Structures are given as C-alpha cells and as structure tokens.
Amino acid sequence: MNKEWLDLVKEKPIAFGLESGFTNLTDIHNDWIRKFILSDVDITLQAHRGSFKTTCLSVAIAIMMIVYPAKSILFMRKTDDDVKEIIVQVGKLLRTPIFDSLAVAIYGKPIIIVKQNAFEIDTSLKVTTKGTAQFVGIGSKASITGKHADIVITDDIINIDDRISKAHRDRTKMTYQELQNVKNRGGRIINTGTPWHKLDAFVLMPNVERFDCYSTGMIEHEELQEIRKAMSPSLFAANYELEHISESESFFSSPVIDDGTNTELIHDGICHIDAAYGGGDDTAFTILKERNGKIYVYGDLRHCHIDDVLTEFENKRTIYRAGTLYNETNADKGYLAKKIEKPVKTYHEKMNKHIKISTYLRQRWSDIIFIKETSREYINQILDYTENAEHDDAPDGLASLIREISAKDKWGW
Q1: Nearest to 283 by CA among 393, 141, 152
Q2: Cα dist. 329→288, 312, 332, 340 in Å?
Q3: Tens digits of per-residue pLDDT, 295-334?
Q4: Is 221 exposed, middle or buried (0-12, 13-18, 19+ CB in 10 A)?
Q5: Cα separation of 333 and 360, whole Å?
Q6: Could you count the other beta carbons within 10 Å of the beta carbon of residue 343?
C-alpha cells in the first residue's frame, strides 16, 4: 500500500479534481472534499449557488469508492435527471488516469467499472457480498423503503419548490427523516445545498457550516452586482447570502397551491397576457376564475418574446376553457390583439402598477388558490415582488384580472 497516495487523499484530495479537469477548485474546496471523505459524523454544508459544491461531492464520491470498497453510498438529489448527471460525472472521474493510479497504489490493480447505468455504479474493487451497487443514485420523490447505505448523501434536495410550497417543504422534511432509517448503524449522512426558505429541511440537518458569497471569494464584486440586479432581493439573500428576508418584510405570504383535485374549477374564466417584446422582460400568461369567494389561478411565465409562446398560451386557454383575453395596449399599440383568438378585450393602462398590485392583488391574496399546473417561476415572481422589483409581469397581470372581476362585482355585471 502506497502511503504517499493515502496522504494525498487525507491532505490534498483536491488534486484528484484538478488533475481531472476541474481547474476552478481552490483551497476551500480541498477542505470540503476532506470533510466529505474523512468525517465520522453527519455534516451539512450550505454554500451559495455556483460554489462548486456538487463538483466537490463528485470528486469525494469517486475517491470514497476506491478507499472504502466495502461501503455502500446512496446519493439523493431532487429529481431523477439531477441524479443521472452526477452518476455520469462520477463514472467519468473513475475512468481518469489519476483515479486509476490511486487504485493501483492501494491494491496493486487498476479500477474497472463493471456496471454503470442511469442510477448505479459498481466497480471491480467492491468487496461486499451484498447485491447493492457501491454507488446508487435516487430522486427525492422515489421510494426508499428497504434501502440501506453506509454513507448517505443529499445534494440540493431543497429547491425553489420548497420556497413557494409548504407541502413541498413538508415532503422534503419527511424524506430527510426517512433517510435516518436508510443509514446503516455506524454510518453517516452528508448534506449539501442552498437554503430557500427559513422553514425548509435544513432546520433538521446537523452540524451546519455556511459559506456565503462574501466568505468564499469565488465571485468577483462586479459579477456579484450583476447577479444581484438579475433577481429579487429575497432570492439573492437566500441563494447567495444564505439569509432569509423575514415574512414581515415580504409583500406576499406563502401561497395556497391546489393538489390537482380542483383544476376544473378554473374553467370558464378570463385570461390575460402581459407580453414581452425582447430585452430582459418576461411574458406572463394568467387565467382566473372566481367561485364562491375563492379565486382560482393558472399562471405561466416565460423569459422570451410573446411571438415564441403565443400558440402555447392559446392552447392553454383552450385546455382550461378560458374566455375573454385581456391585453394592455400601452406598449404595442394593438399589435398583439390582432393575433389573439377572439374574444379579446384591450385596455389602456392608466393606474400606477404598484398601486394596482397592492390594491387588488394584495387585498385578495388570501382568497387565491393556484392550480397545480401553475409554473413555479410565475408564483416565485409574485413572492419576490417589491415596489422596486425589476420584474413584475406575473403580479401585474394577475392584479389586472382581479381588478377586472372587482369592477364586475361593483357594477353588477
């Protein structure tokens, strides 16, 4: 057994990442990889977006598969597609010369991948007689009943869904708690990710170490300012500063999202398009139907020109049996109204946008139920709204439709 190679694993595992082409890794990443490999207790790493934490995990997993051939590793991300990405990356790492050299130095023979598919990797070094592969990946919504592992890893199992939905937060917490039964006796759990909500699953995770965008020094000041400009203050605070703006400072509280059983209640409503014609604007499409004091809403938000999504929006209009489509003409002078399927009602906006949103949308917020198919980006933009928000197409469109039904109520239409 070659002591120099084992010392490299213990002291400078970053070398395996650098040699494999991950040239952006720094000393801080070396510390992360060391903890992933050597810690004997559960650990949690919170780091800002773009900090290469998942890359560090991939390097650590590849090393652990060689130095811990008797241990099984279960890796969980939010979706199956996210898992597949890491399976591919770990497989590529194990095929690089430096990992092959590590195997030869320790065991006197190269490492051979004997099985790799979308969710598993097995190598020739495995010494356990159990049928489970050395490295197994799984999405957070998949069943974990009956699964067991010595090292359990969660990576970004908390995402934007957890920010906008209490149901998602509760489901993620339940999944994390179930992982305690997956971990073998004497095993450990490694958690990595970025916080999205003050009550997300991170509140259950132990031994948290936090690395915000200022402490890592990975993002230059100018780039950080550009990132800040491109998103709302609350989203920047959560994803880069690892802080949460308190709900008292937010314009809108957590939304109510239907579980899919009441989709038909949005039928026979009205709809609205807040169109973008290029640049950095978004195109927002909204359908609304009020029933028995509740407002059922479908919304979609796309970062593109209206011409690129109009056909798709019209299809949604048909699927949800929406009638009149309302369209503001201030920007396009009637261009869009000519292309929209009838019935169409145009209007010239005269009301201040912030007053409209704070008057109509905020007052009826507690009555709104978003149907399940509403895009998370649409809801997220509403939650991020402030008077100085750079992007406000979703709350503006929804407020316009609520104003419309309020006017009908007022005049008895």
Answers
A1: 393
A2: 20, 21, 5, 13
A3: 999 999 998 888 899 999 999 999 999 999 999 887 776 7
A4: exposed
A5: 25
A6: 10
Instruction: Inform me whether the pLDDT recorded for 412 exceeds 80.
Output: no
Average pLDDT of 352-363?
89
Is 32:53 a contact under the CB 8 Å cutoff?
yes
Stated as kind and residue range, the H or E segment containing 45 is: strand 43-47
Type of residue found at 313: F
Tokens of 266: 């949005």
**pLDDT tens by residue, 212-271:** 998 999 999 889 888 877 766 677 888 898 987 555 456 787 788 898 999 999 999 999
What is the DSSP code (8-state) at residue 265?
A: G
Name the residue among 283, 318, 295, 282 with its Cα closest to residue 371: 295
Cα–chain center distance at 129: 37
How far is the CA of 27 from the CAs of 168, 216, 264, 355, in angstroms? 35, 10, 55, 50
User: Whose CA is closest to 300, among 272, 329, 323, 265?
Assistant: 272
CATH for 3-220 is 3.40.50.300
DSSP state for residue 367 in the 8-state scheme: G
Beta pairing partners, 284: 274, 301
In contact, 320 and 301? CB cutoff 8 Å: no
User: How far apart are the C-alpha atoms of 378 and 370, rounded to whole Å?
Assistant: 10
Instruction: CATH number for 256-411: choose from 3.80.10.10, 3.40.50.1820, 3.30.420.240, 2.60.40.1120.
Output: 3.30.420.240
Residue 228 zone, left/alpha/beta (φ > 0; ψ -120 to 50; rest): alpha
Angle CA 113–115–116, to nearest 5: 95
Residue ranges of the chain assigned to CATH 3.40.50.300: 3-220
- Name residue 399's amino acid: A
For residues 78 and 57, is the Cβ–Cβ distance under 8 A? Answer: no
Helix (H, G, I), strand (E, B) or coil at 351: coil
The helix-helix angle for 3-11 and 97-107 (nearest 10°) equals: 130
**CA separation (Å) from 184 to 37, 179, 204?**
17, 10, 19
